[in-house]
Amino acid sequence: TQLLEQSPQFLSIQEGENLTVYCNSSSVFSSLQWYRQEPGEGPVLLVTVVTGGEVKKLKRLTFQFGDARKDSSLHITAAQPGDTGLYLCAGDNYGQNFVFGPGTRLSVLP
Amino acid sequence: DVKVTQSSRYLVKRTGEKVFLECVQDMDHENMFWYRQDPGLGLRLIYFSYDVKMKEKGDIPEGYSVSREKKERFSLILESASTNQTSMYLCASSPTGLAVTDTQYFGPGTRLTVL
């Protein structure tokens, strides 16, 4: 069973700061997704990365898939209180199974 | 917009009770999923279904069963609830014929407490 680890587990920052959260595994994934889950809601997909080394930008969010397809990072520039939530990564093992990491809980203070 | 709804946001049951969690999606998706979410463990797949009357075990099916009689509805059943099944239950659906590889749309979750 593939495992995804996420770090840090918790992160509390001030509005306007930059941050990076990480998703790591010893396994190779065919694609990797990032979700954000707000309190009381289900996760919502932010992005899917499919190519090793790929970088995708979504406004202030930058997602990178590692060259070896074993890790990914999410960088947020100038964080805002609306970015608060649980950030989950999820990896697809070439259609065989799909595994979620435990998440990074981000709190952005005004 | 895709909408996935779950029958209850909060549910409190007693040990040994039979529990039904209902999920409905309105986008004609083939695939539907049930997960449980526990702090520090992320989402763990209980069961999924890729067609009506079809079901596949996920990573933690023990103590659960599912039913999919109609394409839009996927039910999770706890035959005899136990305290270790206290958790947040999330339903999801996705549009393609592949089992787990496409974008999943999640419902708001049901927080189940078993006393």
What does this protein structure show overall?
- The complex is a heterodimer of chains A (110) and B (115).
- With 110 residues, chain A is mostly beta strands.
- Chain A is built from no helices and eleven strands.
- Chain A starts with a strand and ends with a strand.
- Chain B is mainly beta.
- Chain A binds chain B through residues 1, 4, 9, 30-31, 33, 40-45, 48, 88, 90, 92, 95, 97-98, 100-103, and chain B through 4, 9, 35, 40-45, 59, 90, 92, 98-101, 103-109.
Instruction: Report the uncertain regions of chain A.
Output: none
Largest sheet of chain B: 7 strands, mixed
Largest interface: A-B, 23 and 23 residues
The average pLDDT value of chain B, as a whole number, equals: 91
Q: What fraction of the residues of chain A are assigned to beta strands by DSSP?
A: over 45%
* Share of residues in strands of chain B: over 45%
DSSP, total strands of chain A: 11
> Would you list the SSEs of chain A in sequence order as H and E?
EEEEEEEEEEE
Query: Could you spell the SSE succession of chain B in H and E letters?
Result: EEEEEEEEEEE
**Oligomer description:** heterodimer
Based on DSSP secondary structure assignment, what is the total number of beta strands of chain B?
11
